[in-house]
Structure formats: structure tokens, C-alpha cells
Amino acid sequence: VSRRIGILGGGQLGLMLSESLMRFGVEIAVYDPDAQAPLCKHATSVFNGAWSDEEKLSAFFEECDRLTYEFENVESELLFRLEKKKDLMPGASVLRITQHRGLEKGFLSAQKLPHVQFAILNKEDAENARTAIVDFGLPCLAKTTFGGYDGKGQYMLTSESDVQELVDSNALTKVQHVLEEAIDIAIEVSCIVARSRNGEEVAFPIFENQHHDHILDLTLVPARIPHSVASEIESIARTAARDLNVFGLLTVEFFLSRKKPRSAAAREVDGWYIMINEFAPRPHNSGHVTMKACDLSQFDMLARILLDVPLKKPQLVSDQVFCMGNLLGDVWIAQGKQELDLSTLNDFPDVIDVVSYGKKDARSKRKMGHFVCRAETHNKAIDTAHKFRNSLKTKQYLHSKL
Ligand SMILES: Nc1ncnc2c1ncn2[C@@H]1O[C@H](COP(=O)(O)OP(=O)(O)O)[C@@H](O)[C@H]1O
Ligand SMILES: [Mg+2]
User: Fold this and answer.
1) Which residue from 210, 394, 170, 220 is spatially nearest to 323, judged by alpha carbons?
2) Which of 47, 226, 260, 401 is deepest in the core (most CB within 10 A)?
3) Do the Cβ atoms of 326 and 370 come closer than 8 Å?
């Protein structure tokens, strides 16, 4: 019997997951509202429908033996009904919590997992929002509880005039928000935990993440943190995955601060304050680095879980530093072409991989591809990543090579 795995969402995460799945000979079915989504060009079976179209989603579930999602903004209430007929991994109960910042924060505090200080701002209370925010304390961030990604729907509030501006914009009257204390971040890291139905559980090495404009810019492995901090982080991530009852991948994003935060729920290890930022119950942008840095990638791991293939602990393939850099639409815009001109690769032998997701519409800040480079030190890896990406954006550089 040919097995068919369904992926809700046809973006780059689905595309790369499908590559790992295909190596086990299975067929891929994808559901995405956008017929141009990267995976839609490659899957065996393509369903284009709205996320709210229960009939179409139900037909999609019928076609598949097992399903997963690479996109979090699917209505989880629908998935609770659909998962009764077909196995969805991770389950709808995991998605319900992780897709909603309010429920996610409530979960963290109920499970006594380390987190930042937060408060919920209901839209019904928007009238008193100004006082509520000032009482909560500045600087802080207001984030929409549902539907945000890559920093969308987030407001940094440092002064009372920022607060007034947000109140005047009426954003708070429209949807629920969560307030978070602004953390003085030393390093952001992520840890991906994989759990199978057969009781296996493994964690990836911890990644160090650098953001630019609230969007992931670079991921480095190994992370520059002490061993004691790394092992606490791994143990927190594993506990969270068990508490959420995840079968599949759980990515846990962390803030690490060297300054005591306001939150009493931060965990302190050797002068480092550890707090969970958020969860993603799926492969993660930072995990792209595993495609080169580890003997099993995050996508290979999820494919194994979905197909009941035994897991193994992923190992780093060398003791070098690996660095993944995102390529945003801005690179394509700077080049002024659909196809990415990669001629500068000749000058960057330490750039060992470049991936383009095949998205047609190059928009600023849209994730369109990534690359991985390696070096002997973190600083060299970061330097190479910046230089390589700049070379792709610099016309003179590209021309001098013609
Ligand atoms: N409370 C905070 N304090 C400091 N920086 C923050 C805070 N919340 C978010 N950020 C910054 O914004 C980035 C994106 O925020 P995040 O909540 O992870 O949303 P997204 O869903 O867009 O990834 C974080 O990785 C971090 O760099
Ligand atoms: Mg995030």
C-alpha cells in the first residue's frame, strides 16, 4: 500500500519536509489556499481551499493516511473534528495552545515553565488600556494573541506617548492583545524536541538566533552559552514537549538575559535568566541549520515520526561553527530578477548550501530562501554570512564578476 502524508500549509517548511518524506517513498498531499505556494508545484495531490472550508479540509483528510501542519493559523476547532477520523501530528490540542499567545502564556504559568511577565488586554477593556499598560510597566510589548508572525502585530512601547499612539490607533479595540515586559536580551536561542508515538524523545543541539526587525536573520550552532545553561534549556524544552503531549516536533524559543527580569518566573542558572518566549509545534526557521550541521535534519526527524521510523539523537557533523542566514525578498528586489543570481558563490567557498523556495512574488521582508556557511569561529561564520548576503544585493559586485 502506498502511504500518503498530508501537510497543511505549502510553504517552505512543507516543501523541505516533503523532500525528507519522499526519501521514504511516500506520497505527499498538500492543502494551501495559495496555488502558487512552494509545495503546490511538487506534491502528488494538491488541495487549494480556504482554511475555514471544512468540507474541503475534510476531503483532504480523507485522502491522507496521516497529517501534520507547517502553518499555525489553521482554526484548531475544525481540526479537533477532523482529527477524529485521521491522525494529526501534533494533535489539535497542541495547536490550540501554541497558536494563541494568551493560552500559551497561561499554559506556561500553569505548568510552572519559565516565562516573561505578561498580562492579557481584552478588547472589551480597551477604554482603560492606557492605564493598564502604564501600570503594567514600560518598556513593554503589546502583541496580538492570534495570527501574528515575523514580528507582525507587535508594538514596542517605551514611552507614554507610544502607549497613547497605540491606544489612538484603535488596534486594542479590535482584537485581544498580550502585554510582555521588554527583556534585555543577551542571546535568543531555540531548542527543537522530537517525540514519537513509540515513546522516543530526542532534542537537537541548541541554536543561537539573531533577529533583525523582529525577523530571524542568522542562526548559529553551537550557541555561545555555558554548558550548565544549555542543559537547563534542553531540560525545560523536553518538559514543555511532554506537558503539551507533543507527537512530532516542538520548537521552543527562549530569551536569555544577564539582567534580572521583572518576571519572578524566570529560571536562573549561573547568572543567566532563562525564559520561554514562545512555542512552534512544527519545523522552525532556525532549524534549517540542521540540514547541514546535523546528521539528521529537523525535516528528516519529523518524517521519521510521521512514518514510525526509529529516531536517533541528532549529532553535529563537525566541530566547526555553522551559520544559517535567511534570504528575504529584498535580495530579489535588489537584483531585479525572478531567478536568484548566485554567481558570487565562487568567492565564498565556506557557503555550503543555498536554498531558494521558488516563491514568485518578491516582497520586502518575505522569507524567500536561506543559505548555510561554516567557519572555525562564530565571528568568522557571522562575517561570511553578512558578506555573502551583501554580495547578492550589490549590483557592482555581481557585475564585476561577469
Ligand atoms: N518581550 C520581549 N522582549 C524583548 N524582545 C522581544 C520580546 N518579544 C519579542 N521580542 C523580539 O521580537 C522577536 C519576535 O517575537 P516573537 O514573539 O517570537 O514573535 P514571532 O511570532 O513573530 O516570532 C523575538 O524573537 C525577539 O527578538
Ligand atoms: Mg518567534
Assistant:
1) 220
2) 47
3) yes
pLDDT tens digits along 20-39: 999 999 999 999 999 999 99
Contact 39, 279 (CB under 8 A): no
Calpha distance 228→163 (Å, rounded) = 39
**Cis bond upstream, residue 222 (ω within 30):** yes
Pocket of ligand 1 (CB under 6 A): 116, 141, 148-151, 180, 182-183, 185, 188, 211, 214, 253, 277-278
Q: What does the pLDDT look like over 48-71, one tens digit per residue?
A: 999 999 999 999 999 999 999 999
3-state secondary structure of 234: helix
pTM: 0.97
Q: What does the pLDDT look like over 205-250, one tens digit per residue?
A: 999 999 999 999 999 999 999 999 999 999 999 999 999 999 999 9
CA dihedral 281, 283, 284, 290 (to 10 degrees): 140
CA 253 to ligand 2 center in whole angstroms: 7
3-state secondary structure of 217: strand
Helix spans in 2-155 (H) = 12-22, 54-63, 76-82, 92-98, 101-110, 129-136
Name residues whose C-beta falls within 8 Å of residue 84's C-beta, 6 or more positions apart in sequence.
none
Distance 214 CA to ligand 1 centre (A): 6
